[in-house]
Amino acid sequence: MTTENVSRSAPEKQFFGHPRSLATLFGMEVWERFSFYGMQAILLIYLYYEVSRGGLGISQPVAIGIVGAYGSGVYLASILGGWFADRIFGAERTLFYSGLVVMVGHIALAVLPGVHGVTAGLICVALGSGGVKATCSSLVGSLYEPGSDRRDAGFSIFYLGINVGGFVGPLLTGLLQQNAGFHYGFGIAAIGMALGLAQYAFGRKKLPASQKTAPNPLEAGRLKYYGLAVIALVGALLGAVALGWVRADNLSDVLLVVIAIAAVAYFAIILSSPRINTEERRRVLAFIPLFLTSGAYWALYSQSYTVITAFFDQRVDRNVFGWEVPVGWLVSAQALTVIVLSGVFAWLWTILGKRQPSSASKFVIAMFVIGLTFLGYLPYLGAEGAAMPLFMLVLLLLGFTASELCLSPIGLSVTTRLAPAAFQTQMMALFFMSLALGFAAGGSLGAFYTEANEVNYFIAMAGLGIVTAVLLMLCLPFIKRASRGTE
């Protein structure tokens, strides 16, 4: 008997007309995003604030690079999390263990002082969040039969959890950071993840049995070889750190180079494979400009967690009727704009129907919009003190969100459509690699930002968005021909 049939025979066990297990996964996502975005909202200022203000006193350019490298690491870890789910634990156990690792990371940030706490905390949160990202969505899909007319509605409810957690988490961590200190903010993030794990522990037994085991388990005796490879990789990394090749001030640069090499190798393996035909090879080639555009887009979007956060802290008038808005609330404002605009865009694409732009054209729109949004900062640059009104920053955040809704949800869809039959999972890994590439590039770019060169910096970011849009526009005829039959 399928999960969906069970749901129909026991309506009292449903969650807004959906399988009861959706509530378990919804809750897990809410609390994981609560902790993730809550911590990220105050991470940058924790790194560069002076010790007298509770921070670590790291230089702002280095702090921006660290945050960029951390964001890149989350998306790289999602590939690793998917491998553990497919080959060792299954999606259900991988999700639970990943949540535990996230909680340990937040505890480390809350209780361990100095650089050691940040290092341990960020590594754990990145690894754990990558595992959650790789498994939670697939578990939602497993609750429905193929072709179920309730699947899209179920995912809509689930994704609401992302935005609810992303909105509420920074509100609390930002308030605690401002009124009690950074470690209290990190502590509430750990408590949030603990609540998510507690409710998941009660509901996980009712998740589909197929998700409790690995679908493609490792052959007997193979695990030890992977273990040796991990030990060798960690040893090489520690050696690179000891020799000074990998440092806090070049971490995002190192990741950028490694990810770029890995992406080129990945594309070469797929394109040279005898398991794909000529038509599939053309589609993979058509995916390359979309991959590069996605990387450029996330390099720009990631500035909202680095450069724009620093700008919000230092250059925006955050005073509202005599009360100062916490810096961490910037991330909550972003989540709120997503909640507001996601319904607008869903309505827009529905109204346009077959007249809506192609997926690749939506990428072009996204790049133009985010590029123009950076130009919106220019009138407030080069001035002393808090020059930008708060309402103006919120309007510019709407530009970031509008661009995100033209690219982020479209990217997953177009990746699955252009992927060869033999490389469906690997192509999805490549898509996540474009996000990792973008966040690493964003960290490297953000390290060049200073108040002295901010005008040139924002013009350069706008130029990157607009030029990328124009270049992709030139590729549209080829992409359209190569993807014929997939739209």
TrEMBL record:
| Swiss-Prot/TrEMBL keywords | Cell membrane, Membrane, Peptide transport, Protein transport, Transmembrane, Transmembrane helix, Transport
- Report the domain of life of the source organism: Bacteria
Q: Pfam family of this protein, just one?
A: PTR2
Q: Known PROSITE patterns for this protein?
A: MFS, PTR2_2
Q: Where in the cell is it found?
A: Cell membrane; Membrane
Major facilitator superfamily (MFS) profile domain ranges (all copies)? 24-480
GO CC: one term?
plasma membrane
Q: State the membrane topology.
A: Multi-pass membrane protein
Q: Which GO terms describe its molecular function?
A: peptide transmembrane transporter activity
Instruction: State the signal peptide span.
Output: none
* Single GO BP term: oligopeptide transport
Is-annotated flag, keyword tRNA-binding? Answer: no
Q: Which family does it belong to?
A: Belongs to the major facilitator superfamily. Proton-dependent oligopeptide transporter (POT/PTR) (TC 2.A.17) family.
Q: What is this protein called?
A: MFS transporter
From which source organism is this entry? Answer: Halomonas cupida
